[in-house]
Write a structure and sequence with these properties.
binds guanosine-5'-diphosphate; Spore Coat Polysaccharide Biosynthesis Protein SpsA, Chain A; 40% helix; single chain; binds magnesium ion
């Protein structure tokens, strides 16, 4: 993606960017929270309020929130830009897919830690604290995990989505020997170094990007950890069952053949 295809809202960054302390001096940004959004007008305001409250309580000044509007036509960007002056807004001129949106956000971010989270906060933002704890044990990429013996899922996804996830993970295991249990969870944390290295190389624009970034992390030798996260399925998924699962499998095959 060429950088000039992304626009950033004016006015918010220089004046109220949270990586400046109250005395006006630069403070190293500890954490960037990246929220990819497509047609999220109904929830983005509440989501930003919740995320900003958590960051203020946990990180005082040294955080940033980046909303990446993925070509929404429902006013998501306008609502996000009004919601909180400290939120950075990146806009992709047309809908490219969650992978493209996360990549743009990860590469624009300044934080030493970079978290991606879905706009519906199916995993509560407070779970970031647990993922950060894994980094204290040496991990450089921490992937949220929903399934398994210590699952903390409160409300499951619909059965067809669970099957879709399982089949996709199985395909990933067979084709790439990737043994992580839940590659598709929308809650993942990266160190700055891992985020820069992975997302500069990532190519997949749509939902298979999660898998690609785990593959890249492994190839680049970053230490990956899994962390069980709370999850509560939210209605109003933007995932289209047939179109998106087909495109995910096509992407896996292209990855296998080295075509991406
Ligand atoms: N479906 C979809 N989601 C996108 C797109 N671009 C960004 N997103 C965001 O990706 C996140 C995941 O979407 P969601 O519908 O909650 O996925 P689900 O929980 O797996 O069903 C949300 O924050 C979306 O707004 C896109 O092109 N399509
Ligand atoms: Mg969701």
């Amino acid at each position: 993606m060429s950088p000039d295809s992304i626009s950033e809202s004016k006015g918010d960054l220089t004046t109220a960017h949270p990586v400046r302390g109250s005395d006006g001096r630069a403070v190293p940004c500890r954490i960037s929270v990246i929220i990819p959004c497509y047609q999220e007008v109904a929830r983005i305001q509440d989501t930003l309020r919740t995320v900003v409250r958590y960051l203020e309580e946990s990180y005082t000044q040294s955080w940033e929130v980046i909303v990446v509007d993925d070509g929404s036509t429902d006013g998501t960007a306008e609502v996000a830009s009004r919601a909180d002056a400290r939120v950075r807004l990146l806009r992709l001129p047309r809908n490219r897919g969650k992978g493209a949106a996360v990549r743009a956000g990860m590469l624009a971010a300044e934080g030493g830690l970079r978290l991606m989270t879905d706009a519906d906060l199916a995993t509560p933002i407070e779970e970031a604290t647990r993922l950060i704890g894994e980094m204290g044990c040496g991990a450089e990429v921490v992937i949220g995990r929903r399934t398994g013996p210590r699952s903390r899922v409160r409300l499951r996804q619909p059965w067809y989505r669970q099957i879709m996830g399982k089949v996709f993970n199985l395909a990933g295991r067979l084709m790439f020997n990737v043994r992580y249990q839940d590659t598709q969870c929308g809650f993942k944390l990266f160190t700055e170094q891992a985020a820069e290295a992975i997302f500069r190389r990532a190519r997949i624009d749509r939902f298979a990007f999660d898998f690609e970034c785990i593959l890249l992390a492994r190839q680049l030798g970053f230490k990956i950890a899994e962390c069980y996260v709370l999850w509560e399925h939210r209605e109003g998924s933007r995932v289209r069952l047939f179109a998106d699962s087909t495109s995910m499998f096509i992407s896996l095959i292209k990855l296998r053949l080295g075509l991406h």
